[in-house]
Design brief:
This protein is mainly α and 65 residues long. Helix content is 82%, strand content 0%. Helix 1 packs antiparallel against helix 2. The model has no long low-confidence stretch (mean pLDDT 92). It comes from Sphingomonas bisphenolicum. InterPro entries: DUF465 (IPR007420), DUF465_sf (IPR038444). This is DUF465 domain-containing protein.
Length: 65
């Protein structure tokens, strides 16, 4: 995967992460959100965060000290 591909993928994941954050907040604020649905969205958000971290690490070159 090229650096450009990683950067594009990171941007898409970050947008999805922000969208999930907004969706979760809206469900919680509305008070009518299904707790299972909120839990699923939060799990998805955590998986996205982990994938973002992996891709960010891939962008940093290994430095041998």
């Amino acid at each position: 995967m090229s650096r450009e591909d990683i950067m594009r993928r990171l941007e898409l994941l970050r947008v999805e992460h922000r969208d999930l954050d907004s969706a979760i907040a809206a469900l919680v604020t509305a008070g009518g959100g299904d707790q299972m649905q909120i839990a699923r969205l939060k799990k998805r958000k955590l998986r996205l965060r982990d994938e973002i971290a992996i891709l960010e690490d891939a962008l940093v070159p290994d430095i041998i000290a």
